[in-house]
Amino acid sequence: MSVSACIRLVIASLLLAACSPYTEPPEGPYAGVLKRGESVTLAEPDGPFTALSILYRQGGGYLTSTEISSKHLLYRDRVLLDKAETMARWPDIAQPVYFASVVDNTDTVVKLAYEKNGAPVLGKLNTGADYRATRRYPFGFPMAPGLLYFPGQLWPGFLLRAQPQAVVQSMLPDPLAGPHSLHANTLASISPDGAAYALVNSEDAPSVVMVVDAQGSHRDAIALPVTYLAGLEDSRDEMANPYQRLWDWAGKALSWRRNAVGRWEVRPVFADAAPELNHPVEELFLDEQRGYRHCFAPDNAACLPGWRKAASSEVQQAFSPGYAPPFAYAPLAPAQAFGAPVSLLLFARMGLGGAGYTLQLDGEPGAVAAQLTARLAQRRIAYVRTDQCPRRTDTVDKCKALLMQKFSRPESQARELEQLISSMEGRPGVLFILSQTAFVVRPGEQGGSLLQTLLRADFSRQD
């Protein structure tokens, strides 16, 4: 045989080896449940179950080989579930319960496996819309021993309870869906009997809480001062349970009570006594941290007396036909704020997120703005009126110098605040910016004046 022929034979042999399929049979104690090309990299037995980490080599040759990892779950040495993308055991409970992400046609579903009466149970979780997960917590966040919380992305989510011989799923009702939603869809606390839920609008900085029971009946929303529960760096920690700090806070800041008709409600609890205020409605716009410690819902004993729910006709007369916010109140006796009679007080969603109060007054906007300015000066409260900012050909950083002067702000403005200042350019009314709130004094739709909260935040925090 010539040298060139030998070389061609060697090359052909190498190519054949490079492209040859993997044909070795499985080996080891789990060979009976494996297919060709599969090997076990980790076996975790737990009672009648064994979780297997599988590596499948496809192709076999060094030019075309690929490796695919998956999870198998055995029940008494028989395959109960295979080809799972991820799998995890329910932590911190004695009964072995397993979660697994499995591709079903083109969708990824969550399977649930456990033992009941000496037999395996394999079911599929009703996850509804997308739920939130992190790298450390792919299948729910531990809220208590035997209780997992699966938060929804834009909905309240659901709870999973481990009980003897059973796993029970409970969908959390949305307390207020539709155009007037306050986005209070994060679970903060559960009533002592487990029949009602307190939901807030943020796990990092709650500013509103709503109570809803299992049947979907909700109480009036309760406003809270914006409370930052963690630093910005802490909120980005993927290895921490992002809801634990919320639950710890709620255990101290929210107290469960039954109202006059026996339904659960929560009452805010503060470290110090709420200050006595001569004009609590005015305080909503003068000091967010003090003013929002008071609420006005007539059905909640923790709220201020002297208010009733406003009729829809009153609201539509002041605003427009068809406008029906769910939380509108009117004083039982004549009341004044900023030198004008109070007509209505609304608690509603703000355009840039969160919720805040809107006050309807029977007075001219100019006179109300002048009274408000005088109150701020009298209290020596730092503020910026955007109509006093220097005129510019554009609106970018229009009030930057004044904001830095009044609040010692860093050079970088909060994105929402800058957006708000720009959006008010050319619109009627005066925008007031305080250290933790921004609101506009503008003409009412049907006369009078509106003080409308547009943003509540600590404007000294960097983005």
Protein model, in words:
By secondary structure, the protein is an alpha+beta fold. The chain has eight helices and 27 strands. It has helices at residues 3-19, 244-253, 280-286, 288-291, 312-318, 365-379, 400-407, 415-423; strands at 38-46, 49-58, 66-75, 78-84, 86-89, 98-104, 107-116, 119-124, 141-144, 147-150, 158-163, 166-171, 186-190, 196-200, 208-213, 222-223, 254-258, 264-268, 307-309, 328-331, 336-337, 340-349, 355-361, 384-385, 430-433, 437-443, 449-456. The strands form six sheets. Strands 19, 20, 21, 22, 23, 24, 25, 26 and 27 form a nine-stranded antiparallel β-sheet that branches. The chain has a four-stranded antiparallel β-sheet with strand order 1-2-3-4, with no helix packed on it. The radius of gyration is 30 Å and the shape is elongated. The model is unreliable at 14-18 (pLDDT under 50).
